[in-house]
Design goal:
Elements lengths: L3 H15 L3 E5 L2 H12 L3 E7 L6 E6 L13 E3 L8 E2 L13 E6 L2 E4 H7 L3 E7 L1
């Protein structure tokens, strides 16, 4: 697999489109941090790391609107790819849907959202947009 982060985002996107309640994804430290941010920002209900014999997995409980059953995530887009990395400074930090969505960045302070990066005054690699 050449891009495990794109696979992670695609599994979440496909699970939302199929109407699943839970999705299982092979675990890594970066995927755990992205999942933590999605949980903190309210895009998923919960998550847990399941340690298994062949490999660890992340179980993610997806979030839907209680009445309309619409997904909490409308779009989840991979920005920086292995063939073309996208780096931004704090001055050129993207604002997703004018602040309604989030951008997840990989910085020297760890994997954080765009708002936290502005507060810490750091730039980095833009991993994805979520809204």
């Amino acid at each position: 697999m050449t891009d495990p982060i794109a696979d992670f985002l695609t599994r979440i996107r496909n699970a939302y489109l199929a109407g699943h309640k839970i999705v299982e994804i092979p675990a890594s430290k970066m995927k755990m941090e992205i999942t933590r941010i999605l949980h903190e920002k309210g895009y998923i209900l919960s998550y847990k790391l399941v340690e298994g014999t062949p490999a660890n997995t992340i179980k993610i409980a997806l979030k839907y609107h209680p009445e309309t059953k619409k997904a909490a995530v409308k779009k989840i887009i991979r920005i920086s790819k292995p063939g073309l990395r996208k780096y931004v400074g704090v001055e050129t930090m993207p604002r997703v849907l004018n602040g309604l969505g989030i951008a997840i960045l990989s910085t020297s302070k760890g994997i954080i959202s765009d708002k936290e990066a502005r507060e810490l005054n750091v730039g980095g690699e833009v991993l994805c947009y979520v809204y």
